[in-house]
Amino acid sequence: MKRPNDFLFHALVITASLSLAVLSLLVIYSVVMRYVFNDAPDFVEPIALLLVIVIAMFGAALKVREGGHIGLDSLVKNLPPKGQIVAHAFQHMCLIALAVAIFFGSLQMAETTFHDRIPILGLPEALRYVIPVIASVCIALFSFENLLALFAKKHN
Q: So where does this one cross the membrane (predicted)?
């Protein structure tokens, strides 16, 4: 499971990094066009919104893989070793449950908005919801990988 997740992790890193770079360039372009040439481009805002969704959702998935998600470390560190394993397992089970909820909720929204169009861009509105669908699959896979690693350590 580690190798496919390694590939997925690197693809998310590249996608999120490129999205951040493009977002930065778009914002600079928009500011220059607005305040120097008094000609604000209309397309920047809807593209920027899509890029922010990519960065936020893929960034969240990346932090799950790295184990950098929000946790109660001060509480967990004070537990005995078996309690720490139970707490980490519970945390990853909760993340998997959250990923499943995001997946089905976003999938439903994508299906509902497929025929609607994003103004100015003309792309399907569903694109905004496909990004969280992809990220939720990654979150579930990364959490499952961490869960397997946790129990592999327990048995060693």
A: 7-31, 43-64, 85-109, 129-152
The predicted pLDDT at position 70 comes to 61
Nearest alpha-carbon partner for 100 in 143, 65, 66: 143
**Total tally of structural domains belonging to the chain:** 1
Chain Cα centroid distance, residue 20: 13
What's the pLDDT score for residue 154? Answer: 59
Three-state DSSP class for residue 25: helix
* Model confidence pLDDT, tens digit, residues 115-125: 999 988 999 99
pTM of the model: 0.86
- Determine the angle formed by the axes of helices 44-66 and 127-155, rounding to 10 degrees: 10
Could you tell me which of 70, 68, 30, 65 has the C-alpha nearest to residue 51?
30
For residue 126, the enclosing domain spans 2-155
For residue 147, is it left (φ>0), alpha (ψ between -120 and 50) or beta?
alpha
- Could you say which residues of the chain have pLDDT below 70? 1, 68-72, 154-156
Tokens of 113: 């908005």
Q: What pLDDT is stored for residue 81 in this prediction?
A: 83
Q: For residues 5 and 145, is the Cβ–Cβ distance under 8 A?
A: yes
